[in-house]
Amino acid sequence: MKEVKAFVHANRIGEVIAALKGSIAWSAADAGQHNLAVYVVQGSLLPLNQTERHYSVALGDEVVNEYKLELLCEDQHVDELIGIIRTVGRTGQRNAGWVYATEIGNLLPIA
Questions:
Q1: Which positions carry the signal peptide feature in this UniProt record (predicted)?
Q2: Nearest-angstrom CA–CA distance, 10 and 105
Q3: Which residues pair with residue 53 across a beta bridge?
Q4: What CATH number is given to the structural domain containing 24?
Q5: What's the pLDDT at 32?
Q6: Tens-digit pLDDT profile for the chain (111 aa)?
Q7: Contact at 8 Å (CB) between 43 and 95?
Q8: Does the residue 56 lie in any domain?
Q9: Inter-residue contact 28 to 104 (CB < 8 Å)
Q10: CB 90 within 8 A of CB 96
Q11: In terms of residue numbers, what domain contains 68?
């Protein structure tokens, strides 16, 4: 099992989620249960325009509201899901976000 995490611009997150849910990996018989969580975070991605620029008094710096996506998936689906995020999450900037995967040591249902 893997956890895929990504930081994506706000104007791309809806399309990224739709593309993930429409993927073969999402609907594959061996896909198991996916857990997709999305959070609004303040980060340091380059703003796409002036309206994305915000100054955080708490952090004492300029920030951009971006989305952090967390997704659990089977090992064999990681490359497909990361590819979708990288393709659909593009904004035209050189650095439009980040995506990475980590190994899940123990995954137990709460029952």
A1: none
A2: 31
A3: 64
A4: 3.30.70.120
A5: 66
A6: 899 999 998 889 999 999 999 999 888 766 666 789 999 988 777 777 777 777 777 777 788 888 999 999 989 999 999 999 999 999 888 888 899 999 999 888 888
A7: no
A8: yes
A9: no
A10: yes
A11: 2-103
In a domain, 60, yes or no: yes
108 burial type by CB count under 10 A (0-12 exposed, 13-18 middle, 19+ buried): exposed
* Tokens read off for 9: 């611009």
- In this prediction, residue 83 carries a pLDDT of 97
Domain-located, residue 25? yes
In a domain, 43, yes or no: yes
> Number of folded domains in the chain?
1
Angle at 25 between CA 21 and CA 30, to 5 degrees: 120
Length of the chain: 111
CA 33/CA 52 separation, integer angstroms: 34
CB-CB neighbours of 85 under 10 Å: 25
In the chain, DSSP finds a helix count (H) and a strand count (E) of: 3, 5
CB atoms within 10 A of CB 88: 17
Q: How far is CA 110 from CA 10, 23, 53, 107, in A?
A: 31, 27, 40, 10
